[in-house]
Amino acid sequence: MSDQTKPHQTQTENSEPEKTVRLWDFPVRLFHWALVVAIATSWWSNQEVMIDIHAISGYSVLALVLFRIIWGFVGSSNARFSDFLAGPGKVIGYMRKLPNGSVRDLTYPGHNPAGGWMVVVLIVLVAIQAISGLFTSEDTFLFFDGPLVAYVSSDFASTMNFIHHTNINLIYAAVALHVLAAIFYLMVKRENLIGAMITGVRKVPESIANSFTQIRFASPILGIAILVVCGLAVWGMVIIARGG
């Protein structure tokens, strides 16, 4: 059987065979798209003044963030913070090369140096949003009080309310930048980052496929178990804080 007819192989423009390799594990993909849904639901419920849905989406965001932090230490090798957080020199060097040409960037079997820090920024911003919501007290949502308002002073609650209403604009900006980056990679760098995050696989030239097959994938069952525990922890905290 020739290279052109082997399963899971295609041909690049320079006739170099490509292989389909695993890139993102299921827990990472589940986190990514669940977070998208939760943030979109938070925005929609805010516009429609639906406090119960807004609160549930906020709790979901908090559970997802807790999961991603844990998975950043015990998950698949390319999902760990130690794998994709680079120093400023490497980030600056990568950004300088980014605009050059339309050649695909296949150097990193996971997040590139700039993308890795974007992940951290997004995690921090949504964590701040979810946590501040726990302490928010306002009358915008029919005199809604977050589950932890009773445990803090009115000044602290007011500060959390300000952070909650201000930080959301930073999230919108970060999300917009994230989407624009994905479009840039698709149109200019010829990298379908969105497709890879949906399917979990990526096509790469055979010559560099080994760097991708060296990814150590953690058990998806472990990931789901951690996510369930995080969800139960957040749910339990809310129930206890509200007095059962």
State the main characteristics:
elongated, three-stranded antiparallel sheet, Cytochrome B6, mainly alpha, transmembrane, disordered N terminus, 244 residues
Kindly name the structural category.
mainly alpha
Widest beta sheet: strand line-up: 1-2-3
Overall outline: elongated
The CATH superfamily title: Transmembrane di-heme cytochromes, Chain C
Largest sheet: 3 strands, antiparallel
- Low-confidence blocks of residues: 1-13
Verbal overview:
There is one protein chain. It is built from nine helices and three strands. The chain has 244 residues and is mainly alpha-helical. Strands 1-2-3 form a three-stranded antiparallel beta sheet. The protein is elongated, with a radius of gyration of 21 Å. The N terminus is likely disordered. Keywords: Cell membrane, Membrane, Transmembrane, Transmembrane helix. GO terms for molecular function: electron transfer activity; heme binding. This is Cytochrome B6. It is a multi-pass membrane protein.
What is shown here, in short?
With 244 residues, the chain is mainly alpha-helical. 61% of the residues lie in helices and 6% in strands.
Q: What does the secondary structure layout of this molecule look like, with pairings?
A:
Layout: E1 9-11, E2 17-22, H1 26-47, H2 51-74, H3 81-84, H4 88-97, H5 113-134, H6 154-187, H7 193-199, E3 201-205, H8 209-213, H9 220-241
Helix pairs in contact: 1-2, 2-5, 2-9, 5-6
